[in-house]
Write a structure and sequence with these properties.
heterotrimer; A alpha/beta (about 375); B alpha/beta (about 500); C mainly alpha (about 350); A: about 375 residues; alpha/beta; Rossmann fold; 13 strands; about 45% helix; C: about 350 residues; mainly alpha; ABC transporter involved in vitamin B12 uptake, BtuC; two-stranded antiparallel sheet; globular
Amino acid sequence: MKKLLIRLLTISLVAFTLAGCNSGSTSTSGSGDGTGSACPIRVGFVTDVGGVDDKSFNQSAWEGINRYAEEQGWDADACLKVIQSSSDADYIPNLTSMAEDGFDLVIAVGYLFEASLNEVAPLFPDTKFFVVDTVVSQPNVVSATFAAEQGSFLVGVAAGLRAKAEGWDKVGFLGGVEGELIGAFQAGYEQGVWAVYPEAEIVVDYADAFNMPEVGKNIAVKQFDSGVHIIYQAAGSSGNGAISEAKERGSDYYVIGVDKDQYHDGDMADGSSVILTSMVKRVDVATYTVTKDVHQGTYAGGSVMVFNINNEGVGAETSTGRNLSDIEIETILEYNNKVVAGEIEVSPTPVIPNGQSGTYSSTH
Amino acid sequence: METVIEMKGITKQFPGILANDSIDLEVTKGSIHALLGENGAGKSTLMSILFGLIQPDSGNIKINGQEVKITDPNVATRLGIGMVHQHFKLVHNFTVTQNIILGAEPCKQFGIVDLKQGTKKIRELCKSFHLEVDPEALIEDISVGQQQRTEILKMLYREAEILVFDEPTAVLTPQEVEDLMKILRSLAASGKTVVLITHKLKEIKAVADVVTILRRGKVEGTYKVSEINEKEMAAKMVGRQVQFAAHKKAQKAGDTILQVENLTVLDGRGIERVKGISFDLHKGEILGIAGIDGNGQDELVYAITGLLPVKSGRILLNGEDITELPVKNRFEAGLGHVPSDRHRHGLILDFLLKENFIIHAYNSDFAKHGLLDEATINQKADQLIEEFDVRASLGRQTITRNMSGGNQQKAIVAREIDRSPELLIIVQPTRGLDVGAIEYIHSRILEQRENQKAILLVSFELDEILALCDRILVMANGEISGEKKASQTDEKQLGLLMLGHKSGETYDQP
Amino acid sequence: MISLKEKRWIPFLAVILGLVAGTLIVILSGRSPLIMFATFIKAGTGIDLLKGGTFNPRLVGEFLVTTMPILMGGLSISFAYRTGLFNIGAEGQIIAGGVAAIGAGFFIPIDNQFIHSTICVLAGCLAGALWGLIPGLLKARFNVHEVVVGIMLNYTAMYSANWLYKQMPLNQMTRTENVPVSATLNVDFLRQLTNNSRLHLGFIHVIIALFLFWLIIEKTSFGYQLRATGFNKEGARFAGIKVKRNLVYSLMIAGAFAGLGGALLTLGTYGYGRVITAFDNVGFDGISVALVGGCTMLGNLFAGLLFGLMKVAQPALQIASIPKEIGDIISSLIVLLVALQYAIVLYRNKIRDWFKKARGQK
């Protein structure tokens, strides 16, 4: 009896294995083993808890990878894979899984991956890694950093101009998690607002999370109620809470988007949008570039890509026919040129503490 | 004589038990037909089949000569069959009338309930069947006996011709029992057919015309009540000769074991339930507490066992004040307790039988260094199972829930008696048990008396109190309404005392 | 009524039905269920049937790492449940255990890893026990329901822990520095053995905890009292068992189990403390584990491994283009089916009757 059972089990296992292999090689979607046929390289993307539909950072990165794949005519389903992390406990196993599975390029977006990548990258010297928003000094990691303060400076100018014109004496800032990275967003914003409107009071609050829209919404309610009409959100999907609050309030309440052009996330029923402008951080350009580098053999491990206002890696979204007037757009471009020319140097260090507010004179 | 119910070859199998094994039953119109049997003999299953609550595996049923399929209680109602359950199904904040017409409301135009018409019809029914109940009273305000009458009226209102009563006297006082018997007779006299499920032989003798005895799912026989005596019925029901009256040897009471002094106890809601009661209990004596349920007996027992705090007064066990002691210490000081609700209080039903045996002594006799001593536990369990004839399918490893009520009670009695406590408090020891089990438990209680233990017996069954006790205290409304020697009183006198007539003394003895 | 025997087979049936349902969903979404099963096998055993049976011990290591805290959550819930309590506060106790373990790691300077890590783990257990003591005392003294207190204390634990972590050496605003190696449960030996997985010494603690759970509940007179209380509180009180005191002890021990889970997370899985904005749901997963495992030691072990597998397989599922949610769907279905055990028995009986009739007609 027992022997029979073991034999049956063995047979079914073998059948199972064969069946698995078969379906793996015939299906177009690939079984995770399809190093051959359609894929010149395989790209893996590990997101943080946000996921690729976060309307922000991760989505932008994913779009960049897909754009390159599309241009090259790759089967995106087979060649590009994404793993969404359920918590920070997953970072290491997720990166490792992708490396072990033989992906040529493994992309991690966000400074939260710094420690995990430092641990995983040395174990897979043949895998190429790419990280955004932090620098990991390993021979098989390319890092990309963004001069977020420069782009934030320009949207700060936009906020300052609009507030001054409307007679609003306060503007708001909603950050994700306090620290060096988001601090740069805040700093650039402060300097931009005060460059055109030094009397403006800037209200600063952090959601302490990038994935909690309800917290973002609560902060937006608080700021809007205190007389703020424009909030710059640098808070991932927490910022979506601020956008939805502005939508509920309707005209005269604005949110400045972050990371990608969020104009259509602010769409209202009447065709207008609550998104004044967006601080565009071309993560998609970064992921596009690195995918291309790996594909064409120009990947330089250990290097750091710097994206700033000069190479259009960051900037304010200034399409006409939206919420910005032509004069505002003109002024923003003027400031843009000043930064490019080095006439204005934007500091990445903020001056207003979390939970407080201040004007130029109160902080200097 | 016309046959109104004819059940033939009724068989019903439940997992592990053949509840009804090709049962035949014929009931004639206008008779009172008793269905007698131990618990689990299949009486309730048979009547549930008749009432459409259960479908039989095989067999057929004829009502008034017509073969019928009773698929649910609505069909039974249409066929004129009504049932008074042991637990009444009444809405407490409705009036008698509202309860009776519920589901069969007489309507005026637009579906408005015509209460007046209902009340009128009910008054007529009360009159013609001698049922005393106020149709406009709320259920929560009337006595248990009147609630039962409401249930009867419910059936009559629906023009039931066959009335099934499931253990109707279990909840009644002796006076109410007598009234019920009268009602049953008048129902039969007016042409209704009564089926009476019971295990009380006296009631059958008093009221029934015919008795069908069931044992282990089979019909043992059907007899004219006039041609069979109680002893024979008991023997047929149990399957052996039954010792009837408990043999109580004359003996002198010894030293005082329990003294209760001016005891006042509040219940959980702060209502005074025991009002300054005092009494003594001696070695080799059984003291009975008689009374209608809810007159302070529970609170008295809980105060003595430590389950409820005492408001004032003292309790002395062997001269030692135990008023403030925790429950466990009282058990260790020589107290035993067989609680009235064996399911909720006496046993942990989900425990194995052996685990229930050690519930008072889990950390002294049956554990070493905090670890349970399985060998000793098993040994004790086997000993008690053997000594007290506790029947359980898997022996000591049986889950207590799966045992019959009688054996559960035996297990509790075994556990308490085995510890040989100086004072044994026993509440309702035979409720719901059959003759065989009652006989056995009574004999063990008397044995304790012979061993010079003191026993406090609380029971609502006056038979039991009279048979076992030396002295009887009657409790009414939290006070002792009378004290009698068992040999010098009877049910009638006690019944009056139970109603709170302190005039028990003025009652002239025949 | 459901018999003991049925109680034992229902979880197995639920697991099978859950997997069948998962298979159907995968088929409906146009993916291969064989790949799903192969992925589960790979995540659980490290053997990749799709790559000719290659063995990767790292996957086994990660499987255990994921399972351990969930399993401890299950033990915590189970222990309290055996006493008739619903320890929904396990989540908070895990957080409390985690922060205490990290605190001991930073502030108690000992170089010996064995001694230091043991002290840290014990600190975690103690913190969990204290966090369990609060609902226990409130229940015993004022009859406040442990679920209400537990839920509140979960949030209290989360925000207090966030504040406490920020008082420790910080790496970023969201996490502390790594604790000294002597405080962690990580050893190179296990790393090397499992191809650089994060497998840590915590599995020893888990085995000890499983043993203690079994010993206390099944074998001691104390556990006997707890079980009596759990089955029938009034019955236990009538028998002289000190019910209220036992409720407090029970929640403390349950808290200690959860606290150990928290310590394993911070000292083993992470090696640092995290400022969190939402619950990790380890304690809530524990509820599922306890339910499916029937609150016994062995049941918890199997259920814990099962839920750990459903979790740890998620990255591999995503690489195979199968939505990772399938793992969650299967887990949830299993829980649902176990909760619906009465319905299962009912339908089984109906099906059996139907077969009987069909046979009878022949």
